[in-house]
Specification:
540 residues; mainly beta; 2 domains; 9-stranded antiparallel sheet; 8-stranded antiparallel sheet; 9 helices; elongated; DUF4270
Length: 540
Amino acid sequence: MLCSAAIAVVAMLGVVSCDNDLTPLGANFLGEDASDVIQEAVFDVKTYSVPVNPVQTNNFTSFPFGTYNDPVYGVTNYGIVSQVNLSNPNVDFSGNAVLQNVYLDIPYYSTAISIEDEVTTYELDSIYGNQAVDLKIYRNGYFLSSFNSEDVTQGAVYYSDLEQTIDLNKGELIYSNTAYLPSSAEELVTEVDDEGLSEVVERLAPRLRVGLTIDQWKELLFQLDTDGSIIDARTELSSASNFQNYFRGLYFKVEGANGGGNMIHLDLNSASITYVVESDTSLIDENDSDGDGNVTEFIRVESDYIINFNGNKAVLINHDFSSAIDAGIAASNDPVNGAENLYLKGGSGSLAVVELFGQATNDIDGEAPALSSIIANDWLINEASIEFYVNQSIVEGGESEPERILIYDYDDNTVLADFVFGTSTLTGVDANTNHLGRLERVVADDLDSDGTFYKLRITQHLNNIIQGNVENNRLAIVTSQNVSLLGNTGVSDAPVNNPDLEAIPLSAAISHEGTVIYGNLSPEVDKRPVLKVYYSETTN
């Protein structure tokens, strides 16, 4: 039987416990037959932090902007650089054209929660913090190529540490708001009617919608006569590629914050700059209604021309970690022994590696002895899970704690088999909770309450290891705002603090939150992460 074998494992590996008392868990596991009885065993895991170099951001699916003040990790500023493209290149503006208006329109992610008397009340889906920041939007002078300059067969990769380069190449100021705080109010589009009264012509979901300086954009877009009148479009507007090289996009920068500031995700894929031009448009009046002998008549028409944001984009992430946090991450980066604390912070922050059975490989065959015993006894794993406890002496509890963490194969950069098995119809913060449990709190369902632990189930993954379907690779845990977001993003090889880490989950790169959890060397022994296994033996 396994228990005698496990005694040797205790001496060699430090198995926390091997409890072979019969533990009936009911028909939910094996049915009601008296022989269907589950046993329990608990094994060590080794855990340590790994700092994350700058992350690739030009593949982000949403675009964080602003200032996020994490109670543990401090201030992180998020900027954005984006190409812009003409929807209508090579337009003729020779008909006494006048630029009437220019406005920038960037939607926020929001949810309509009620409608009353035509007024829709919205809730912003992804805003963090409620104090203003100093927003500046500059003309970008750095060309965001679509291809790698060293290998044009590869796509370009832009990392989160691009801010200094973008800042050195910024052009003139396009827009400024020293007290920018996104509003959840609907945006009203008004026009002046024939009687000179303002009327609402459109109601839009919450967004940043602002008028831009007409004279500035007239110089940017048009050939001008000496008196400032428009002759035609600039030659750079003759094609999309010419315009992209001439006007290389916009640079969104935070230059200061009041208190904690705010950070919001912008829907740049739906953003636009619209310029409104009034010009003469000809039409044929076959009846010569005005009797001047000319059937070609001219009328003044307003037309909208769109500049969209569907070009290359990159998010610029600037962490300002305290010396204590930097020291903590460095001290917990001990692959040999593990660590007291594990530091999890999204973006170019920190993740934690998890080695099942104390060490991924530690005998002559390259297999942990405890795992060899499990395989030899042909265990059927009914449930395998790890609980990661929050270090409440470091973490300020409440809404700033990440609700979800994600576990994945660190060596292969793939999700575990349990990810697919745990998928359900639920979305958002409640997606896939059978595999990746939400943060348990002192007071359940109270986001202001302190977080206690995360329970991650890896049942199918452990069964696959036992059956030889997958290797006992190192695993990793990261923070995630959206555990359903699949895919990886690259990690820069500079600075060289972990050259082996080439990619992390995309949702972790986008995530802004952080936490600290207990590691395998924590003095709080009962809060160390362990692999808890409920199993049935099929071989005695």
